[in-house]
Amino acid sequence: MLLDLEILDNSLKIGVDGAFLYIPLSREPTTGELKSLPEKTELIDFYFEFQKKKHILKDLLDFSPSYEVIGDIALLEEDLDQQKASRIANFLIRTQPNIKTVLKPLTPVIGEFRLRKFGIIAGDPKTETIHREYGCRYKVDLEKAYFTPRLSTERSRILSWIQEGDTIIDMFAGVGPYSILLAKSKKPLNVIAIDKNPDAVYYLKENITLNSVKNIEAIEGDSREEAKKFANIADHVIMNLPHSAHEFLDSAILLTQPGGIIHYYGIAPEDNLFEGNIKLISVAAERTGRHVKILEKRVVRSYAPHQYNICIEVKII
């Protein structure tokens, strides 16, 4: 349970005396997290011993390899040559018990569904895994549906905007990392998760079951068409399709009830981070006789040299 909540401190040893186990935490749990733990759990101070230092890859390889972990799969960088990729992969499999497969991208992210092909460098021959994040589990096949763990903090941030009883529409839901986290919080009345990729919707439905969430509806379809069915009902519209979200602004505004908020994601150059996208949002609103109020604008992460993934929170009036 502590692993699911991501508050177990693996750098310290579990303590023990004649009657109790003492499990180290990385931070103090919230009141809600404490209530979710077994009834006799107590929160106390305890002096833990440090775990023995493990060999890190830099010590073994003489350099620090760059990779990301999704579930039990490690993804290496695209531009590694085969010999270097194999060396890193073999060390990962040998030294990281949580990694069962190492993949290397064979193609960039391409196509309408933003997919990649992968080569299996070491470990189990698979591209499907279950990724854990903020107490949720996401089953995904990396060759069939786009998923990145790099937005986990951003997904958690959006949760802070949601109020009890809200209706949320996730226009490009994928396998559900935004929709399921929000629905599982039990704040929203309803979450409508839409995606055009049938494989992504298959895994979205699998993840709804895996996370036991009820207040969520998975829809396979084009957000432009689905917007006509759900006009003016959304308190929040999530537009996490940064390369082409601007093409769907008319539909997002149609979905949003007066006073509702659009969470708009884009890719922008460093010399025009926000103004260009704000203008696109404003013009789209004016076409339907609506107005906008910018609530927040922020850089989410660096995307490429001089290019940034940005988010703009805008109220539609």
CATH class bucket of the largest domain: Alpha Beta
Got a strand count?
A: 15
Q: CATH fold name of the largest domain, please? A: Rossmann fold
Q: What best-fitting shape do the alpha-carbon axes yield?
A: globular
| Major sheet description | 7 strands, mixed
Low-pLDDT runs of 5+ residues are: none
Walk across the major sheet and give the strand order: 11-10-9-12-13-15-14
Structural class: alpha/beta
| CATH level-four homologous superfamily name of the largest domain | Vaccinia Virus protein VP39
Distance between the termini: 42 Å
Q: So, CATH architecture of the largest domain?
A: 3-Layer(aba) Sandwich
Give helix and strand order, one letter per element, not per position. Answer: HEEHHEEHEEEEHEHEHEHEHEHEE
Tally of helical runs: 10
In total, the number of domains comes to 3
Report the helical percentage. 25-40%
Radius of gyration: 22 Å
The percentage of residues in β strands lies in: 25-35%
Could you report the average pLDDT, rounded to the nearest whole number? 92
Descriptive account of the structure:
With 317 residues, this protein is an alpha/beta fold. It folds into 3 domains: 53 residues, no CATH class; 70 residues, Met-10+ protein-like domains (GMP Synthetase, Chain A, domain 3, 2-Layer Sandwich), CATH 3.30.300; 169 residues, Rossmann fold (3-Layer(aba) Sandwich), CATH 3.40.50. Helices cover 26% and strands 29% of the residues. It has 10 helices and 15 strands. It has a 7-stranded mixed β-sheet. Strands 3-4-5-6 form a 4-stranded mixed β-sheet. The chain has a two-stranded antiparallel ribbon with strand order 1-2. Strand 10, helix 7 and strand 11 form a beta-alpha-beta unit. Helix 5 runs parallel beside helix 6. The longest helix has 14 residues. The model has no long low-confidence stretch (mean pLDDT 92).
